[in-house]
User: Fold these one by one.
Assistant:
Number 1:
Amino acid sequence: LQLLRNWDSEDDGLIRVFIERPYVNPQGFKATASALRCLEATLIAIEALGLSYQYMDSKEWQREMLPLGLKGTAELKKASVDIGCRLFPQYAEQIRKHKDGDSLLIAEYARRKGL
């Protein structure tokens, strides 16, 4: 909400939203349904603001931003937190609190690739 309060419509062309494509798992119906509902709500907000967006597969940014050979969600999240805190020390407290640095790493990946 703070982002929206500080929004300057003149910046619209400079802002691009990257959304990690949700993982759809037929065995995990409840988790998949929840993820898709969150995605829909996110898209409604992004479109209402008139922002452009692009989907990104997790493997795409992880391949470049995380060490090779990580297995499982726990290892990926730990690496995300560690690397997020190292690259963005000004947000280390928030990264540790939420136990997730993925969004910052996705943004950094997009910046490095000129997306």
Number 2:
Amino acid sequence: VTINIGADVPLNDLKLAAISCNADAIALSFSFAYPARNVVPILVHLRRLLPEQIQIWAGGAGLSGVRKPPNGVRIISDLKDAVVALNDLSIHHSTQ
């Protein structure tokens, strides 16, 4: 199930939504207009807020300047990466 909660959601609200709906992953998209200097700090902060079992996927043109993703964040560069991430999530669920 995919739930779109919109843009510019405060991180604490995103955390509460993810926990309340028992999310397996949160996918974020950063546009090219998003300030590049804010991308990594946002991802690091969100990773600290969320339980470890909730995956964070990030994509979009705003990530073009990110050399190394923060620990616990998966970069989704294209549709192929998204399919692989979904497959990995499915495999993870089937082994639990």
Number 3:
Amino acid sequence: MRGMWFCLVQARLVAAATHSLVESANWLVQGQASEEKLISSAKQVASSTAQLLVACKVKAEPDSSSMRGLQAAGNAVKQATDHLVRAAQRSIAQEQEFRLVINQRMVGGIAQEIGAREEILRKERELEEAHERLRQLRLAKYGTTADGIR
């Protein structure tokens, strides 16, 4: 009974992640979200689906037709989310190509370089803050982080 409950919880997590992915896609189309949010949501769907498969493998007969079908569905989800992530990453790269116009004057070029370095430092700080938020979330949720730190 406990194993079935765990499968149900995992299935609900897949549903929640899928809902988040649909919302992210909708917001992106409306210009209210970024490709990065879509990528993060897609990766969460893939992760939740993989966890559901693991939970189901514990309860199911390994060679049963339902387990093979579930595994095929899980592989299809993984493949679809991988395609979505790659498409979003290509979109980001194309958008960045369009924005890069180099100022040929010396002072203007130096100012652009300073601005680019400033942006890198700001994004590195934002990344560190995001990693810390994720660590705190995992600590609150699981009592430990992914690297085993309590």
